[in-house]
Amino acid sequence: MKVEQQQHTNNKQLVVLGGGISGTGAALLGAQKGYDVFLSDGGTLSSAFAKALQEQSIPYESGRHSDEKILIANLIVKSPGIPDNAPMILEAKAKGIEVVSEIEFAARFTEEKIIAVTGSNGKTTVTSLIDHLLTVAGIEHTTGGNIGKSFAQQVYEGKSAYRLLEVSSFQLDGISSFKPHIAILLNITPDH
Q1: What is the model's pTM?
Q2: Which of 186, 110, 121, 120 is nearest to 150 (CA)?
Q3: Nearest to 16 by CA among 42, 33, 38, 47
Q4: Residue 174: which pLDDT band, with cuts at 50, 70 and 90?
Q5: Cα–Cα distance between 63 and 40 in angstroms, integer?
Q6: How many CB atoms lie within 10 A of CB 95?
Q7: How many CA atoms are closer than 13 Å to the CA of 24, on its beta-carbon side?
Q8: Is the model's pLDDT at 3 over the cut of 90?
Q9: Sheet with 13-17, side-by-side order of all strands
Q10: Which domains does the chain show, CATH number per domain?
């Protein structure tokens, strides 16, 4: 388990819950945008994600969630794998801490045109087809979200004319102002 001291240099305290692709991307973007970031992963953080955090001097812990480090946040970005009714999430919301998804967080830092694809089935196929069409047409874009790089990681890495995102229902659970320029809603069936 890796635990590092959290430093407080401003009033923008961001806690990222979950250290996978979306969490690491959110932590990197948060640090770039001036937040004091702390990442907490209840499981084992992969060595690649730990290295990315260490390279940017982002403190983190793995193997547990420390209430005293999490509940001081002004904003929490939670992994899509953490349910809204998890005790830590309920406690944070009861304290008035805003809890959002990585998709919501990243969208706050870009004015680029967003194309989002969601639905129960076919998201990856349709997203891949649109990616191919944009590539053949020579239109500058990035592709990610639920496939490839996280949206936050893409925004962290630099500007693009378009952001093509595959977005799962779990990623959409934590949005409040995310509004893609083009939204594609595929079939909706109960399969979760």
Answers
A1: 0.87
A2: 110
A3: 38
A4: confident
A5: 8
A6: 10
A7: 19
A8: no
A9: 60-62, 36-41, 13-17, 75-78, 98-101
A10: 13-101 (3.40.50.720), 106-185 (3.40.1190.10)
